[in-house]
């Protein structure tokens, strides 16, 4: 899948062909854009910054790249954990993310 600034602004629902971990191609349909997101890894953080969606980030974990051209902007994201987050961390913070999302629609 190629992501460009041209298709970030498409209206939903939006269908995208992706591959499973087994290499099978499937179509994933996105019914509506998320209001808030928790992101894991610098690669995803770079995409968020590239497409100017930082205001949707409620948490960022696993800052694994230091040579990003977006390093300064990525540093401003709300870091919740330097390492890979556990499932328990995400579950324990789910209600917080939900409250943040509801308060900033």
Count of DSSP strands: 5
Structural class: alpha/beta
In which range does the helix fraction lie? Answer: 25-40%
Determine the strand fraction and express it as a percent band. 15-25%
Task: Give descriptors for this structure.
105 residues; alpha/beta; three-stranded parallel beta sheet; 4 helices; 23% strand; disordered N terminus
List the helices and strands and how they pair.
Elements: H1 5-8, E1 14-19, E2 25-30, E3 37-40, H2 42-50, E4 57-61, H3 71-75, E5 79-81, H4 87-103
Parallel strand pairs: 3-4, 4-5
Antiparallel strand pairs: 1-2
What does this molecule look like?
The chain has four helices and five strands. With 105 residues, it is of the alpha/beta class. A three-stranded parallel sheet has the order 3-4-5, with helices on both faces. Strand 4 (57-61), helix 3 and strand 5 form a beta-alpha-beta unit.
Summarize this, please?
The protein is of the alpha/beta class and 105 residues long.
